Amino acid sequence: MHYLMKRNLIKLPANYQLKTIDIALTDGTLLPVSVIGNGKPMLLLHAYGMDTREFLPFILPLVGNYAFYLPHLRGFGAAKDIKLTQFDFVRQYADDISIVIEQICLARNIESLPVAAISMGAQVMWAYFERYGSARVSRYLNIDQSPAIHNQPDWQGGLFGTRQQEVFDIFHEVIDKTLPYADIKSFTHLPFALKRRATDVERLFSLLSVNRTRSKAFIQVMTYKNDPKLALYEHSIWHHKMRCLQAYLTLPYDFRGAIEQVTIPVVNLIGGRSKLYNAKWQQKVTQMLPNATEVVLPRSGHAVPMDEPIGFYKVLKSFLET
Known about the structure:
The chain has 322 residues and is of the alpha/beta class. The chain has helices spanning 2-8, 56-59, 89-108, 120-132, 164-178, 192-208, 213-223, 227-231, 238-250, 279-288, 304-307, 309-321; strands at 19-24, 30-37, 40-45, 66-71, 113-118, 137-143, 266-271, 292-297.
C-alpha cells in the first residue's frame, strides 16, 4: 500500500511548491511567510480570522510570472501561536509588515513591490502608509476597506455603516462576557452557553461579510456546530480574535490623514453590496487618493474572493499586469 502511494505521488514543479520562510522582527519574533511562485515579487495581506494560504486558489495560475509572499499575521494561520505584545494590534502588524517588506526588497534587490490587501490586512496597510509612507510599495490594491473604522460627524463610512452601533453593541456584549475567562487558554473550558454565544456572533460577522446566497449557505454549513461538536471544539485563536475585536471597538482607528501620502497608483476594489463598508463611502476614498482608480463588483459583499472568485482573480491579474 505504501509502495503504491509512493509510486503514484507526483512531484510538483518548483513554481507550485509552497515553502515557508521566517523573517525576524524587531522583538526577535520569527514571523512565518508563505512563498510560492517564480518571478516578480508581490505581497498579499490576509483578513481578520483568515489563513493567508486561502489566497492560493487565486494565485496558482499566476505563479509562473510572480513570486507571492504571504505573511501570517501574529495570532493567525501559521502564526497562531505568536502573541501580540501591543494592544494596538493594527499598528504592531504595520511595524511587522514594514520589516517584511524591507527584507523582501533586500533579498530580491528591488526598490519596491506591489501589495494587495483585504479587510484587516488593508487596514494594516493604511497604518503602514501613515507610519512609513509608500516608497517601498510600487502600487497598491485595496480590497473593500475604509481608512476609518468609527463613524464620525464628517465620516459615516465606518464599519457596518448605519448599523455600526447595533453590531458594536453585540460585540461589546460578547467581549464583556469573555473577559472573566481571559486567562483560560482552551476554548473547551469556557461555559457552554458562552461558547455558543461566541460562535454565533462569529457566524453573524461572517454572514454580514458576504452577499451571495451560495456564500451564505457555505458559511452556515461550515460554521454551525451541534452541541456535542461545540463541547469539544478547540478554537485555538478565539482569545486572539477577541483581543483584536476589543482594539477595533476601543481605538479611534482613522488613517484618512495618511491618504495624501499615498501617491503611488492605487486600485480600490469595492464590493458593491458590502455590508461592512458602504460602497458610496468607499468611492469617496478613491476620490481622496491622489492617484487611484476603482473597480466595483456590483454583486459582491465585503468578502470579495468568496462572493466573486472569478471577478477577484481578474482584478488581481490585471493589477499585477499593469
